[in-house]
Amino acid sequence: MAGDPILLTTNLARYRAFYYCNSVAFVASLVAIVLVQKEKLVKHHALEAAMILVLFGLIGAYAAGSCRDVNKSIYAMALAGAVLIYVVIHIVFFTLDHKDKKDDAREDLLLEKRRKRLLLFAILAATITYQAGLTPPGGFLLQDDKLGRHHAGDPVLLDNYPRRYNAFFYCNSISFMLSIALIILLVNPNLYRPAIRSNALSVCTAVGLLCLMGAYATGSTQHLKTSIYIIVLAVVVLLVAAGLLLVFLLKRHGNSKKNPPSAPIKQKDQKGERKKHARRKYLMLLGILVASVAYQAGLKPPGGTWQSGDSGYEAGNPVMHDNRRPRYLVFFYSNSISFVASIVVIIMLLPQWLRKEQQGEWEKWSLRVMNWTIRLDLFALLGAYAAGSNRGWKTSMYVVALIIAVLGYFVIHMKISTCLERRRKKRDAEA
Fold first, then answer.
1. How far apart are alpha carbons 80 and 170 in whole angstroms?
2. For position 353, what pLDDT does the model report?
3. 425 is in which domain, residue-wise?
4. 269 or 391: which carries more pLDDT confidence?
5. Mean pLDDT along residues 5-13
6. Do 314 and 340 share a structural domain?
7. 67, 301, 349, 389: which sits with the fewest CB atoms below 10 Å from its CB?
8. Has residue 189 got a pLDDT over 60?
């Protein structure tokens, strides 16, 4: 009947597996929200048990709903186990000589801050990859093909370009399973403390980000040349970041030769540490949010995609790509720049590999670079919105004018505030 899920008709067992796993995850998440309000239940670790049930429900729902092949479902579920095994091996090899310091409040505080940043990334990455896996780019076939190879409900991208679809599927699945494994590990302090110290979770996060970029490159377009452009764009941004890092290291090395340290470096001011942590947290939040919306917009472009080739266009291609190509190109590349810049900012916020005496100058310098990158990121996002949210250049110019008006308002407000502050200080001085 109209309105019934296609998967319910074509593969009843798979639909039931997806439906009940997804329902268990949803209900358990609602129960977890209720458990947070009860302090007694939190003390008995009922909340952690509910969260684990949620995560395993999501894994089962993703494996059943993201593909139509049993082998692929098994591979998708095996990825989560592989990630957990890697983290255990990494911890064993990189913490052999580590000795825990008793009552080290500063180290515990730093670990907790890094845990929150990693958890923030893992939650949002799991959200967007789960949705992208269940509703892949290009949409689904509405009816069986003439040769009988693919059926209604199969992804259009799989029908047109099987290799490209497989690349998207596995990149997206790896990122999803990495995120789920990160959340599982970050729930237990006995697991996440050695994992964070050994940088095992940072490695997993970096791999998840690279896979997310690979999924974007393969899923946001059906043309190989455009995917290469996205990869080249990502490489260029990463090389620029690496070049800036090299300049910093060379400058630091030169200064250390001219002015060798004569006395031990004092402990950083706690107030300055709090400010730097707040800036890192805000940058991470902005980077993750922009990467999330840009990833979804790239895989689900404005105007939708052609669902069949009957109209003379290739099924799975964006409608705006064929109807309004210049506008689509402005949207696509603005969105891609925003996505890549966000991923680079998140990657730059992950490592904690410098020695303590070098971290102060590096953090101050790198935060400035990331601030400018986030600004580029947001302006590119505004360009993508102006190009993709409507189909007339006149309306796009209205959006641009609105942006200029808002920026002008902030400038005027700052000028007025500065003048009033100066007058107040002058009156106080005279008094």
1. 12
2. 46
3. 395-430
4. 391
5. 83
6. yes
7. 389
8. yes
Percent of the chain past pLDDT 70, that is, above it, reads 82
Residues 96, 166 within the same domain: yes
When pLDDT is cut at 50, 70 and 90, the band that residue 21 belongs to is: very high
| Residue % of the chain over a pLDDT of 90 | 6
Task: Reduce the secondary structure of the chain to three states and give it as a string.
Answer: CCCCCHHHHHCHHHHHHHHHHHHHHHHHHHHHHHHHCCHHHHHCCHHHHHHHHHHHHHHHHHHHHCCCCHHHHHHHHHHHHHHHHHHHHHHHHHCCCCCCCCCCHHHHHHHHHHHHHHHHHHHHHHHHHHHHHHCCCCCECCCCCCCCCCCCCCEHHHHHCHHHHHHHHHHHHHHHHHHHHHHHHHHCHHHHHHHHHCCHHHHHHHHHHHHHHHHHHHHCCCCHHHHHHHHHHHHHHHHHHHHHHHHHHHHHHHHHHHCCCCCCCCCCCHHHHHHHHHHHHHHHHHHHHHHHHHHHHHHCCCCCECCCCCCCCCCCCEHHHHHCHHHHHHHHHHHHHHHHHHHHHHHHHCCCCCCHHHHHHHHHHHHHHHHHHHHHHHHHHHHHHHHHCCCCHHHHHHHHHHHHHHHHHHHHHHHHHHHHHHHHHHHHHHC
Number of domains in the chain: 2
Torsion sign over Cα 24, 30, 36, 40: negative
Phi and psi (nearest 5°) for 177? -65, -35
Same domain? For 147 and 179 the reply is yes
Examine residue 366 and state whether it is found in any structural domain, yes or no.
yes
244 backbone φψ class: left, alpha, beta (φ>0; ψ -120 to 50): alpha
Average pLDDT over residues 136-159: 76
State whether 412 and 352 are in the same domain. Answer: no
- Mean pLDDT, the chain, as a whole number? 80
Higher pLDDT, 112 or 131: 131
> Is the domain of 312 the same as that of 343?
yes
349 and 413 inside one domain: no
